[in-house]
Amino acid sequence: MTALPTAQLALLAAQRGDQQAAERHLADAATIRQAHPNGVTDIVVVDLLRWARGVQAARQPAAALHHLEQISEPGVRRLAAIDRLEIAVRAGRDDLARAWLEELATFAAGTGAPAADAVVEHGRALLAEGPAAVEHFRRALAAHADALRLPDRARTELALGEHLRRARRRIDAREHLRAAVALFDELGAAPHADRAAAELRASGETARRRDVSTATDLSPQERQVTALVRRGLTTRDVAAQMFLSPRTVEFHLRNVFAKLGVTSRAELTALPLEV
């Protein structure tokens, strides 16, 4: 048994702003680690928990940095790079951000990975000013187009929108802030979606947020799966009623979860949906 899945749930809950679920998963992960130590994945688990704590403390840069700068596993450091870079800059630790950026740039140059290139350009933008910052953000977005990492792309859209609005380029900012709101809503990342919506309002435009009171974003089969699951049917029962395989039902259900920003059948049942 490993605490890795529970640590991943803790991070996901923190990113979605569900503090109660995050704390529950953090505590569960600690209990599992104590009962079933696993040297192979333990460092990854520890770093995911540090990342989750850093996300939780994002409103307090110094506290968030305390957790994020302790992340040591290279893969987790790269995945958490935008959080780490943004918090370091907000905490006034440009020196730390530059050191982390140099490490990431070395990896990006060696691999040619678009996702790494995008984060490097994002980091350079955070440490630049004026037109140079905008150019780095635009390069980051161009790399994101090939990277297919929606959370990082959403963060860059938001950061560029914020930068442009603060530079009094409100009309230019709106395009990126709208994109950020839509992406964060799609990902179920409520804290960042709210932040992007607030920035969009500050630019003089009201955000059109995704309404989970209807299921219009779902395909016909996804709506049918949703309706049956909300009635309490098991995967096998749903499969039998729809003449599908259980695997296909699970595929549709994963899509439903992603579109509606939920992580469990209980959360799906609790949503005020019209299906």
Q: Mind explaining what this structure looks like?
A:
The mean pLDDT is 89. It is built from 16 helices and no strands. It has a domain of 51 residues: Arc Repressor Mutant, subunit A, CATH 1.10.10. Helix 10 runs antiparallel to helix 11. The chain is mostly helical.
Topology:
Layout: H1 4-15, H2 19-35, H3 39-56, H4 61-68, H5 74-79, H6 81-90, H7 94-111, H8 114-126, H9 130-147, H10 150-166, H11 170-187, H12 190-202, H13 220-230, H14 235-242, H15 246-260, H16 265-270
Helix pairs in contact: 1-2, 1-3, 2-3, 3-4, 4-6, 6-7, 6-8, 7-8, 8-9, 8-10, 9-10, 10-11, 10-12, 11-12, 13-15, 14-15
Which descriptors apply to this entry?
275 residues, mainly alpha, Arc Repressor Mutant, subunit A, 16 helices, 0% strand
Give a brief rundown of this model:
With 275 residues, this protein is an all-alpha fold. It has 16 helices and no strands. Helix content is 76%, strand content 0%.
**Name given to the CATH architecture of the domain at 220-270:** Orthogonal Bundle
Helices, by number, come to: 16
Helix-strand pattern: HHHHHHHHHHHHHHHH
How large is the radius of gyration?
Answer: 20 Å
Assign the CATH superfamily of the domain at 220-270: Winged helix-like DNA-binding domain superfamily/Winged helix DNA-binding domain
Instruction: Assign a percent range to the helix content.
Output: over 70%
* Structural class by sheet pairing and helices: mainly alpha
Described by strand count, sense and barrel closure, the largest sheet is: none
- CATH domain class of the domain at 220-270: Mainly Alpha
